[in-house]
From TrEMBL:
GO molecular function, one term: iron-sulfur cluster binding
CDD domains in the cross-refs: Radical_SAM, SPASM
Organism whose genome encodes this protein: Labilibaculum filiforme
InterPro entries the UniProt entry points to: Aldolase_TIM, Radical_SAM_PqqE_MftC-like, rSAM, rSAM_sf
Name of the protein described by the UniProt record: Radical SAM core domain-containing protein
Pfam families hit by this protein: Radical_SAM
């Protein structure tokens, strides 16, 4: 990631709100194990109250709200009410969906027209989704988004970017979307995928992924009030992991976000990538805590493997507390790469 790219994703500029665990389908790779039998849903009262707090934080510092699930369109009226309230507060409001509702161009246009406050939509499709939802529904949803001048992209998950199945899906999507509007993520054996995805499908490496993580800039709020630093696999881990930021039933947005500004592990991941945490452990004689292998080029896999072990989390906190040089590296790395001076002590 280049310096300019990193500057495009300022910390806390966007906040995710997971409206529901309900989904019309149950994909085998779903991290949160969403499905038709799940009941958890964020109440309107909680959504409105937390949106109010987000709006008040640092006089409107947060620009965007991303509504996700589960499947946010599962309860359409609920989605519309939350999106309308978010839009009324001045947020750029986006949504993630599997497009199950886009059964025809006309129906896709009808549904999306009801969601006037949603300015951008991300449609998920891959081999798991397509067991339930045909690619034509995705095409219809994108067609409707274009008709209504909404921003859009297509999100594709895969075990490997070299798999023929994945490449065929990309070819299908390229028939109606330019390549720049397709985002690919690597599936990890986490959540439902832990038991339902064949681990031999992954490409492995003895070295961790080298990239910094832009997704750690955008925390997500869950129906139970938990606030996690990103939407990746760490959302499945216990509260002892350093990417668990707090709970809104116990603390305010301001308290949680202000504490996150000084989370050295989080900002090391954002600035340099989790590889620096691997190096810190190695340099201090803790190689026994490191995994033997990592999924190739999967940043999330590094974080998940490190933070799954409470001892590793405790050791990292201890090492960073004692290592002024590491803390300065993170503080000034964040300033240089992202133009964020919040950790610099005057």
């Amino acid at each position: 990631m280049t310096k300019n790219q990193m500057e495009e994703v300022p910390f806390l500029s966007n906040v995710g709100i997971m409206l529901t665990y309900k989904c019309t389908i149950a994909c085998k790779h779903c991290i949160v194990k969403a499905g038709p039998n799940r009941k958890e849903e964020m109440t309107l009262e909680s959504a409105y109250a937390w949106l109010d707090q987000i709006k008040a934080y640092r006089d409107g510092f947060v620009c965007g709200i991303s509504l996700t699930g589960g499947e946010p369109f599962y309860n359409l009226q609920h989605l519309i009410k939350v999106a309308d309230y978010s839009h009324k507060l001045g947020f750029i409001t986006t949504v993630v969906s599997n497009a199950y509702w886009a059964t025809s161009k006309q129906e896709a246009l009808r549904i999306m027209s009801l969601c006037e406050s949603i300015q951008m939509i991300s449609i998920s499709t891959d081999s798991s989704h397509q067991q339930f939802i045909p690619i034509e529904y995705v095409r219809n949803a994108i067609w409707a988004a274009k008709k209504l001048n909404k921003i859009y992209n297509v999100a594709v998950a895969t075990e490997s970017e070299t798999s023929p199945e994945y490449l065929n899906i990309i070819d299908d999507v390229l028939e109606f979307v330019d390549r720049e509007f397709i985002n690919t993520s690597i599936i990890l054996p986490v959540g439902r995928a832990e038991k339902q995805i064949d681990s031999s499908l992954f490409n492995y490496s003895s070295s961790p992924a080298v990239s910094a993580c832009p997704m750690a800039s955008f925390p997500i709020i869950f129906p139970n009030g938990n606030v996690i630093a990103c939407i990746g696999p760490p959302i499945t881990l216990p509260e002892t992991n350093p990417l668990y930021l707090g709970n809104l039933n116990k603390e305010s947005i301001a308290t949680i976000f202000n504490r996150a500004e000084m989370n050295y592990i989080l900002h090391a991941i954002r600035t340099f990538g989790p590889k620096v945490l691997v190096k810190l452990l190695k340099d201090n004689g803790y190689e026994r805590l490191l995994p033997d292998r990592y999924i190739e080029d999967a940043i999330c896999d590094v974080c998940f493997k490190l933070f799954s072990n409470k001892e590793t989390c405790d050791v990292l906190h201890k090492l960073i507390d004692k290592d002024a040089k590491f803390r300065i590296q993170v503080e000034y790395g964040r300033l240089y790469h992202m133009n964020e001076a919040e950790m610099i002590k005057e």
